[in-house]
Write a structure and sequence with these properties.
The protein is of the alpha+beta class and 491 residues long. Helices cover 40% and strands 20% of the residues. The strands form six sheets. A seven-stranded mixed β-sheet has the order 18-19-17-16-20-21-22, sandwiched between helices. Strands 3-2-1-6-15-14 form a six-stranded mixed β-sheet, with helices on both faces.
């Protein structure tokens, strides 16, 4: 990879908020390499109110202010990214109408039925390019129209969560493309709100703000927030969807690579110039989401480290506090290829006891039940690597492209065992890192907006020079071929 040879003198702030935690990451562009530092972290979760799960949006706003306080007057701009699909309503007077629902709230069953009676899923896919997920925004707003029409009637604008938080600090109602693309109401070809879908569903288009591209909109922060936090920054509408930011930070060149954004979920995909709306894409449940520089993130959701995190919680409850490194050490000691699971089986979505869920799955599929930390962790890691192999091969088939290497970014890139297994299973070189890809991608889009970078290609070269990926090469492909043949019977 070519050296970026870029020198700047500016600091930017990424506020990266996930469903369980958020943090402020300072990006220092004062030398030839990008330097980052986490300056504030906070927890996040939804709250149950009257039988529904809602985001503590005002508490999150307070944490955003704390992030701005932590950065002080040293940053030029700030950008906010979060998870997708969820939203809130702003009234004509600028007030928040109700608490935003969490995508984990089961309210959308009626909305799914309502939408699919009006527009069949294959037709919807052709318009939006999105995989079917029952919590997509389209089904949530359908539930609003059915269950609380007064909310839609009174609203001035619907804003996705990062847009809502940006509104609170700027007073501006803006929609950003990458987060809007997760909604199921954006035309995947035109990259604008779909008149067809909105008319069919019955949601007023004037409740939606104009869509801007990542980094296109830069707004001053309102005076009250500046006085309260000490910030002098402007707010940039970065790649507001966290996965879009993560993919923007993949230090890759060319077109022969796939990515795995690895965390609680694994997003396995490729970056494409145009969406793929074929029958193969629909049948295999791929999705076309918006990316930086008008690109499409063609990907498939795979369960990620959620299963290990749940096992980790149960082991801790039993008095075995174990970090991921210790779990990986135990997994390496266990015998290889003894037991597999399909990580995406509904059994593992939210069981009360993940150990029992794995044990029951193995019994039901005629396999030996893994015992102890090592065997159970090895089962999960090997199964994830084999599922990645399956999706990577589907990607090549559906896109018609050769995939010659895999880039793993996000927290999972620090898991050396899983990275090595992924390389072995896929029989491809794996390049792991950066682990802080979401915050870095957020910062890159801001840097382009500020004129510090020409484009995302220059940004990716900077990432490659600043955070050298770790290389993993396949060493034992034959054994993994045999394992893959067994695993294929489970999916």
């Amino acid at each position: 990879m070519r050296t970026a040879h870029i020198e700047f003198d500016m600091k930017l702030l990424a506020i990266d908020i996930g469903a369980s935690s958020g943090r402020a990451v300072l990006g220092d562009f004062s030398g030839p390499k990008l330097k980052i530092s986490e300056i504030y972290r906070f927890s996040n979760n939804f709250v149950d109110v009257a039988g529904h799960k809602h985001w503590k949006i005002l508490q999150i706003l307070d944490e955003v202010k704390q992030c701005l306080r932590a950065a002080g007057s040293q940053v030029e701009t700030v950008g906010i990214d979060t998870w997708g699909v969820d939203y809130g309503y702003i009234g004509p007077e600028g007030d928040l109408l109700g608490l935003p629902f969490s995508y984990r709230d089961p309210r959308t069953a009626g909305g799914v039925s309502y939408v699919h009676k009006k527009i069949h899923p294959p037709e919807l896919f052709k318009l939006t390019g999105l995989q079917f997920l029952p919590f997509n925004t389209i089904y949530q707003i359908a539930d609003d129209l059915i269950s609380r029409p007064w909310l839609v009637e009174k609203a001035d604008k619907l804003l996705m969560i990062p847009e809502l938080l940006s509104y609170f600090i700027t007073g501006e109602r803006v929609s950003e493309y990458t987060i809007a693309s997760t909604s199921g109401i954006v035309d995947v070809e035109l990259k604008t709100w779909s008149d067809t879908i909105l008319n069919i569903v019955g949601f007023p288009q004037d409740r939606l703000a104009k869509i801007v591209k990542p980094g296109e909109a830069r707004m001053p922060i309102i005076a009250d927030i500046k006085r309260e936090t000490g910030t002098t920054a402007d707010s940039v509408y970065t790649a507001s969807h966290d996965t879009a930011s993560a993919v923007a930070a993949v230090p890759a060149e060319g077109q022969d690579w796939a990515y795995i954004s690895s965390g609680t979920w694994s997003l396995v995909g490729m970056e494409l110039p145009e969406p793929i709306l074929s029958g193969d894409a629909l049948r295999n449940n791929f999705t076309n989401e918006g990316g930086v520089a008008n690109r499409i993130r063609f990907l498939k959701n795979v369960s990620g480290l959620w299963i290990i995190q749940e096992l980790q919680r149960l082991w801790a409850r039993d008095g075995k506090e174990m970090e991921f490194t210790a779990i990986a050490v135990e997994a390496e000691k266990a015998p290889a290829f003894k037991t597999f699971i399909d990580p995406d089986h509904e059994t593992f979505l939210a069981p009360e006891d993940m150990r029992e869920a794995i044990s029951a799955y193995c019994r039901n599929t005629g396999q030996a039940v893994p015992e102890g930390v090592g065997q159970m962790a090895r089962c999960v890691f090997e199964s994830l690597a084999l599922k990645y192999r399956h999706v990577i091969r589907l990607l090549g088939k559906v896109t018609g492209r050769s995939i010659n290497r895999i880039h793993i970014v996000g927290g999972g890139s620090k898991n050396a065992l899983l990275c090595r297994m992924t390389s072995e299973a896929c029989n491809l070189p794996v390049y792991a890192g950066p682990s802080e890809a979401t915050a870095i991608g957020n910062l890159l889009v801001q840097a382009i907006s500020c004129g510090l970078l020409k484009n995302i290609e220059e940004g990716r070269r900077l990432v490659g020079e600043s955070f050298r990926p770790v290389e993993y090469l396949p060493m034992n492909p034959v054994a993994w071929e045999e394992a893959a043949a067994r695993f294929s019977g489970l999916i």
